[in-house]
Amino acid sequence: MILFGLFMIGAARLSAMERDLRFHLDLPGGQPVASYVLGLAFGFGWTPCIGPILGAILTASATSATIGEGVALLAFYSAGLGIPFLVVAGFTDSIAGRLRGIGRWGRRLHQAAGGVMILMGLAMMTGRLSALAYWLLDTFPVLARIG
């Protein structure tokens, strides 16, 4: 994590992180095969992120007191996953214009994210991450109600 943070701020070079691997398939747009390949790539990329959370939600819904509670948990999870995509699709033109404006800050944002990654890696290595979590809960008690 620290090494990746150093890479992000430009203090280290990782040639493996600077490579680009693309498959140039000649799939015409709007075809079922193209949709399948895009969905397959999307699912492959998101499985490590979604899998553990979905597993926890499925476990919680399976052990809930009523079927309605389980359905509500899965419905909120699905809505939380899908609504951002629908919002972005609905506002694509205006969002594209704003993203161009943010683009000039891209390098600085990238470096700031790298700095945060370095700090988080150091906090994990020194065991201070849980102390930070407790400090956040003491300072901002509303965080205890989230999740």
TrEMBL record:
Transmembrane feature ranges:
33-58, 70-92, 112-137
Which InterPro entries did the record assign?
A: Cytochrome_c-biogenesis_DsbD
Q: Keywords of this protein's UniProt record, alphabetized?
A: Membrane, Transmembrane, Transmembrane helix
Does the keyword Amino-acid biosynthesis belong to this entry?
Answer: no
Domain of life according to the entry = Bacteria
PANTHER family membership: CYTOCHROME C-TYPE BIOGENESIS PROTEIN HI_1454-RELATED
Output this protein's name.
Cytochrome C biogenesis protein transmembrane region
To which species is this protein native?
Answer: Paracoccus halophilus
Q: What is the lineage of its organism?
A: Bacteria, Pseudomonadati, Pseudomonadota, Alphaproteobacteria, Rhodobacterales
